[in-house]
Amino acid sequence: MNLPNSITLIRICSIPLLIWILSSNHFSSQHGAKELLASAIFIAASMTDGIDGYLARKRGQITTMGMLLDPLADKLLVSAAYIVLVAYNPRIVPPWIAVVVIGREFLVSGLRSIAATEGFTIEASEIGKLKTVIQIVSVVAAILAHRWDYWLWFPSFHSGFVIAVHLIAVTAIYWMTIVSIISAVDYFVGFWKKIDHASERARRRVVLSRKAKPSQPSPERPSHIS
Prior knowledge:
Elements: H1 3-23, H2 33-58, H3 64-88, H4 95-118, H5 126-144, E1 151-153, E2 161-163, H6 165-212
Antiparallel strand pairs: 1-2
Helix pairs in contact: 1-2, 1-3, 2-3, 2-5, 3-4, 3-5, 4-6, 5-6
């Protein structure tokens, strides 16, 4: 087990911990300890997504196990977060948004699996990277909005700065949903173009192989001597 794969496993192990913190009564919400701890765990787990990939490329430790675990860990983390948020903060995350987000993750995973069997890959687009960033912000904001509607920072400095946590959470959730749909369409268009090219190349190879194959002469009939 190399270091990048170990970090990926840590991300997977953080999922039940996140679910337990948000769904249990062992943490008091009076001072926001539960929300702050859950947000810190989700941010740390999300950061490991970039760390394990960077280390795998830098150390030359890209393995089949890592290629399997990394996207699986991402999908599990996102799906678990939104499923828990539907119950934890339904005024911010209605069920249909969780269905859209999780459905998008399964769609992209399916397209990538088909692409791998056909011998090509679908690279992550800039829209997909933007979706990941907004996704992290939306989950953290939705968790914090369960306890706070507003944050007052630096109250001694000219009345402080007011951060509308609830407004940020709602905006990030719906903006993330829109970007997720656009990203899914972008992945599907890219997949469709490449699958057409792959099918065309396969047809050309079949045609060329048939042309290159020499014709078999028909066996001569033995002559009868009269």
